[in-house]
Predict the structure of Amino acid/amide ABC transporter ATP-binding protein 1 (HAAT family).
Amino acid sequence: MAGQINGLAVQDVSRHFSGVTAVDCVSLALEPGETLALVGPNGAGKSTLIQLISGVDRISSGRIFLNGRRIDRLPPERIARLGVGRSFQTSRVFPALSVWDSVMLGTQANLLSGGHGKILANAAHEVLATMFNTSGWRHRIERQEAIARETLQLFGDRLWPRKDQPAFSLSYANRRRLEIARVLAGQPDFLLLDEPAAGMNPTETGELTELLLALRRMRPNLGILVVEHKLSLVRRVADRVIVLNQGRVLAQGDPDHALDHPEVVEAYLGRQRRRPNSSDAHLG
């Protein structure tokens, strides 16, 4: 399955922690231009799977491929250079950096490489180009600044007017936005978002939903894997949904089919849903 697919492929992946199975023989495929949502109750293994794909954690068994190349043995920085960007479940920003510098930092993987996955062939040349401010180096910096500017402006008045402010001064929701902006500035081929709407109110969640829809229009080849509990967002942005429960795939398919599956409803609520009510609001 995975070795030939053009995109991101997870094949029979498991992760065990001291006898506890967090991910149990999970397989999935994410094609370029597709948005795949990964949902499930707390402790289902969703964030662990993101950690495994991005190289932050190691698989116990199975294989992970990117465009036919096996990546599960690579360190996270190498996987990032190959075109996989990710956000984290809890916001991770550099508090003392300005919003602008934080997003510029996200461009460095492309700035300091000759292409996805390649490390500088001549670091000394790059140092000299920086010291003497050569025209080639200035052109590269200008290109990265244009990317940073375009990325920040995707978030409207949430980040661009605050570009000179330190990250620590931002609200929680804007820190989440900043982290996503930093990842987008690296221009990844595949974007892994771990609960991007966590801590956001309904208005902010709606804005994030519109951003993800806009990204799909602006970057039609960008593959997005989003872990999210807010199923109203999932129903709008996802082409497909995979539901995890206790580390295993419980259901998958288009959003309506997967999310309304009786076993999925029972996994979330501990009972079968007979009719919608206010306690089911988190089901979207």
